[in-house]
Amino acid sequence: MKKIKNENPVKKKPLKKIIMAAPCGMNCAVCMGYLREKNHCVGCRGIDDGKIGHCAKCLIYNCKKLKSKSTGFCYSCPDFPCARIKHLEKRYTTRYQISFIDNLMQIKEKGIAAFERAQKKKWKCPECGGVIGCHTKKCIACGAVFN
Fold first, then answer.
1. What is the distance between the terminal CA atoms of the chain, rounded to a whole angstrom?
2. How far is CA 139 from the centre of its chain?
3. Is residue 65 part of a domain?
4. How many CB atoms lie within 10 A of CB 81?
5. How many domains does the chain have?
6. Do the domain assignments include residue 129?
7. Residue 49 pLDDT more than 50?
8. What confidence tens digit (pLDDT) does each residue in 71-107 have?
9. What CA–CA distance (Å, rounded) separates 137 from 74?
10. Residue 59 is assigned to a structural domain of this protein
């Protein structure tokens, strides 16, 4: 009888199939909440039951102004960038060198498909082709760490 390995199914998915752009500009597919095995998050646009606590309660995701916009992205709001986006922007540019405002402008100007292509290239591990987590800069498949 063969022993079956219990592996994280996310590790096996090709990056192009798991990119999810959140309303704020976060690429949920490279978020450690989505990539981790324990307390796995389904992403901002996933079902609410599958979201981790702080994501389900996110003030940006649950923003009434956002819900009224057909694009589903914060860039279409007349208040963009609002105080919430500015706070998130400051934290992520400082800690992780990720700009949600730049991401949103790329989505607005070039479209979601171009954004997804750029993100796939940016977060693909050059060692094994796996996904590099944006918070750890570590490939979830091979463990390689990048700056």
1. 43
2. 15
3. yes
4. 18
5. 1
6. no
7. yes
8. 889 999 999 999 999 999 999 999 999 999 999 999 9
9. 26
10. yes
Range of the domain at 108: 18-122
Residue 1's identity, in one-letter code, is M
Q: What is the 3-state secondary structure (H, E, C) of the chain?
A: CCCCCCCCHHHHCCHHHCCCECCCCCEHHHCHHHHCCCCCCCCCCCCHHHCCHHHHCCCCCCCHHHHCCCCCCHHHCCCCCCHHHHHHHHHHHHHCCCCHHHHHHHHHHHCHHHHHHHHHHHCECCCCCCEECCCCCEECCCCCECC
75 lies in a domain?
yes
As given in the structure block, the two tokens for residue 44 are 């901002």
Q: How far apart are CA 76 and CA 57, in angstroms?
A: 21
Is residue 133 classed exposed, middle or buried when 0-12, 13-18 and 19+ CB atoms within 10 A define those classes?
buried
Residue 88: what are its φ and ψ, rounded to 5°?
A: -60, -40
Locate tokens 């607005």: which residue? Answer: 108
pLDDT given for residue 52 in this prediction:
66
pLDDT for 59 beyond 80: yes
The neighbouring-strand residues paired with 82 are none
- What is the average pLDDT score of the chain? 84
